[in-house]
Amino acid sequence: MKPNNLIEHTEGGRFQEVFRSVERITRADGVGRSALTHIYFSLNKGEVSRFHKVQADEVWNLYQGTGLYLYIWDGSESVVEKIELSAASGAFCYVVPAGYWQAAQPMGKKVLVGCSVGPGFEFEDFELIDPASAIAEGLQAKDPSMTKFIV
């Protein structure tokens, strides 16, 4: 499937769902989900994916572009981890654990990645960081450069 029907995403950038498993699973909390979902996700130069989290593991895969910086934070007093996905780094995928805050920005003009979520993604499992929240204030106090991924 070609990434030619991308639509605006709440976190920033554009996406297109390309796979949703017909296989269903039941999470530990009793909620049913597709076993796996996969999207294409694109960011242009100057765009960011704002800090958000989902309730499942998410695998980011680099497809096109110079690369992507992925920012991962567990929400504690720890520092934000910066991951580089690029040919130069030799890293083309990264797994963000369920419940971790994540944000991203392209290294060059444009980047196309794939994001697989299992159990499958549903918008009701998606949380965008609230700029007025204590967690956002704490993150900005810890690292002011993260502000661009919150507002």
UniProtKB/TrEMBL annotation:
Signal peptide: none annotated. InterPro entries: Cupin_DUF985, RmlC-like_jellyroll, RmlC_Cupin_sf, YML079W-like. Residues 5-128 form the DUF985 domain. This is DUF985 domain-containing protein.
